[in-house]
Design brief:
- By secondary structure, the protein is an alpha/beta fold.
- It contains four helices and five strands; from the N terminus they run αββαβαββα.
- Strands 1, 2, 3, 4 and 5 form a five-stranded mixed sheet that branches.
- Strand 1 and strand 2 form a beta hairpin.
- The model has no long low-confidence stretch (mean pLDDT 93).
């Protein structure tokens, strides 16, 4: 798309061990089991020129059927008023579920479009076809 990029980076980055969802003692497992641990501090939430954007794509991995919790911290910190927001996600096996709707509820602003899930096997052509079909 040739779009500007902003990376959501947790202040305390996740390691491979942290992301091992099959280990009940891993960071993501503990956060999953205790919603109070999901308020993930981010390095930065201020996007240069944020007010000038009318369309924002938000990409994230799916964790237990919802957007990875660092995305909730990003969404909560920004004003999506007047923006078209397009959620998209990656997942090995889960669908997009209600992840986009949950982020939209958290944002409480903007026009949130239906999202799209991409699997590991998605090609650049698949993604381009989806983007072009949005007619943005």
């Amino acid at each position: 798309m040739g779009a500007d990029l902003f990376e959501v980076v947790p202040s305390d980055p996740y390691t491979s061990d942290d992301l091992n969802w099959t280990n009940n003692d891993s960071r993501v497992s503990r956060e999953h089991n205790d919603e109070g641990l999901r308020a993930v501090a981010l390095e930065n939430t201020d996007v240069d020129g944020w007010d000038d954007y009318d369309t924002v794509f938000i990409g994230y991995p799916i964790w237990w059927g919802i957007a990875a919790w660092p995305m909730s911290s990003f969404v909560a910190a920004n004003d999506f008023s007047g923006k078209n927001v397009v959620p998209f996600c990656t997942s090995l096996s889960s669908g997009i579920g209600q992840s986009g709707e949950l982020l939209a509820e958290l944002a409480d602003a903007g026009t949130w479009l239906d999202g799209q899930r991409f699997s590991r096997g998605s090609s650049e052509a698949d993604i381009a076809s989806w983007v072009n079909g949005l007619n943005l």
